[in-house]
Amino acid sequence: MKLIKNxxxxxxxxxxxxxxxxxxxNAKGVALGVFCGCFPxxxxxxxxxxxLARVAKGNLFLAAxxxxxxxxxxxxPLYFFNYKVGSYFIKTSPDIVFDKxxxxxxxxxxxxxxxxxxxLGSVLVGFLLSSISGGIVFxxxxxxxxxxxxxxxxxxx
Length: 157
Description:
The chain is an all-alpha fold.
């Protein structure tokens, strides 16, 4: 319990801001992590985020943190929203009421349509959230560099 009390947001933020690399390098890591965190691939989001960050030459640590956008507290609202976004773009007939006479083929068809809506929504929401988070992180690191340069100029004068 003492560990939780000592874990302040300033310590977490300082760990986040102490990452080396250019603003673009760090922003790519966060953006790819957030993008992967929007998908319902429980347990594989972090691995997928790390893989994509490695391929795109982004910050691996920040990519892993970015996948934490989905966690036990945000799973239901995030995936429900993703599903609704996907449903907006994939129009289907009204949902079939489940009864005992429902054919197996119809059941598989509903599962396929549900999955398509969820994945499409996850892609679209992932693009939006990763663009926003990547842009914010880029600006934060750019500001950090400017402050460091300004501080060094003041010291040299």
